[in-house]
Amino acid sequence: MGRAPCCDKANVKKGPWSPEEDARLKAYIEQHGTGGNWIALPQKIGLKRCGKSCRLRWLNYLRPNIKHGAFSEEEESIICGLYVTIGSRWSIIAAQLPGRTDNDIKNYWNTRLKKKLFGRQPKERSTGRITNGLKAETTKRDQKEPSMVNGAGNGIVNHNQYWPQLADFTTPSTLHEIPNIPHHGSPVDQLACVGGRFSEDHLRSVFSTFVDFQNPIHIPPTPLISEMLTEPSSNILGSFQSVNSICCDTPQSSNTHFINTIREAVPNAWNELQYFVNDVSEDEVIYSNQQSSDVLLEAFCGNCSSRASSTPESSNSWNDMSSLVDPLTVSEYEACRPVIQQDCSAPFRESMYFVPR
DNA sequence: AACGGCGCCAACCGCAGCCAG
DNA sequence: CCTGGCTGCGGTTGGCGCCGT
Fold first, then answer.
1. Which nucleotides of strand B lie within 7 A of protein CB?
2. Contact assessment for residue A181 and residue A190, using Cβ atoms and an 8 Å cutoff
3. Cα separation of A30 and A65, whole Å?
4. pLDDT tens-digit profile of A71-113?
5. Contact, A130 CB vs strand B, < 7 Å
6. A208-249 pLDDT tens trace
7. Is A230 exposed, middle or buried (0-12, 13-18, 19+ CB in 10 A)?
8. A134 CA to B18 C1', in Å?
9. CA distance A105 to A256
10. I need a surface site. Which of A7, A67, A158, A203 has the fewest CB within 10 A?
11. CA neighbours within 13 Å on the CB side: how many for A130?
12. Under a CB-based contact definition with an 8 Å cutoff, are residues A235 and A311 in contact?
């Protein structure tokens, strides 16, 4: 038996609010407050609305001190920084921006900031709308607000166009070149050391440690790659291993740790990147860089990476691998395994980095 | 001028957590 | 402790309006 509906759906009005409804709701709440019961509120006012709808209308539109209109660069910076560090906790992010609602911020992120940060159009979702990235990226509106669109993946760097108040770091090739990031401690701590304020260049610098924008290595499609791209594997570890051998040639255990570490350190950016990989074809260029991935490993993991076995090994299962790696690495992986399996059901092909030629 | 594509944003939906009884 | 109702949250959707063809 399902839960009881919060209101009589047949008897409630849906859709846009009329000025009269707004006025009645506003007047009542200003005079009496919500009474702690949104469900009962519409009946008291005589509105044919669901209580949740009233609450939403009040919180997002009618309550005092709501700020409408364009977001400032400072606000953008805060949103981006918090999103990278805490994810889509819109209510928490909204709490840092007086006058802004979580809904506003969520919309702003989904429609504008995401594109600004990552440059490519989102992968088409099953229920989502199909977007025309190229067209979208060159609309007048976007031209008015320059984005990193043209900088992503082609080595062109925009220096803090959106975060002018931040230091104008050139794109460093490794994390070591980013000021104030300690090279020890947990990845999260390290990222937190920049105050959760990530400019486009911060993000690029993080990713450039394993995506070498300047010196891409072109790996011709192999049957293995093609298979990975077209045939989702249920064996994620197998995919990791494949990627390991294709991309980095680093010890498998290190690479697994590396992957997990990145996922842990920048989960949302990671998810975003997966999200942007949609139209992979054989003429895509795959970028990889062993040296940079090693640097990232070191930067993120400190001594952790050195604990992992350095013996290259062929193996298709974690059990086989576990004897080669530090127990901590195993437990760390096992802890996040359900998440990985959930997130990477179309496995590593969606986690690899493809940049169009 | 008409039409289609797309972005934007208000609003809806469903789930999870909280809390009182 | 259990249950049911309410609230809050995040993801998704629908519709309007702008823009390009």
1. 5-14
2. yes
3. 13
4. 888 888 888 878 877 778 888 888 888 889 888 998 888 888 8
5. yes
6. 333 333 333 222 333 332 333 333 332 222 222 223 222 333
7. exposed
8. 46
9. 35
10. A67
11. 1
12. no
Residue A106 CA distance to nucleotide C11 C1' (Å): 10
Q: What is the CATH number of domain A73-208?
A: 1.10.10.60
- Residue A62 CB lies within 7 Å of the nucleic strand B: no
| Cα–Cα dist A68/A60, whole Å | 10
Give the containing element (helix H, strand E) for A286.
strand A285-286
Domain with CATH 1.10.10.60 in chain A: 9-62, 73-208
Domain A9-62 indexed as CATH 2.40.50.140: no
Q: For residue A40, give Cα distances in angstroms to A8, A14, A37, A56, A164.
A: 12, 17, 6, 15, 48
Nearest nt to the CA of A40 via C1' is: C6
Cα-Cα end-to-end distance for chain A: 54
Q: Strand C neighbours with CB under 7 A? A: A 3-4, 6, 15, 34, 36-40, 51-52, 55-56, 88-92, 102-103, 106-107, 110, 125, 127-128, 139-141
CA of A113 to C1' of C11 (A): 17
SS3 letters across A25-46: HHHHHHHHCCCCCCCCHHHHHC
Report the SS3 class of residue A355.
Answer: strand
Nucleotide nearest to A129 (CA to C1'): B6
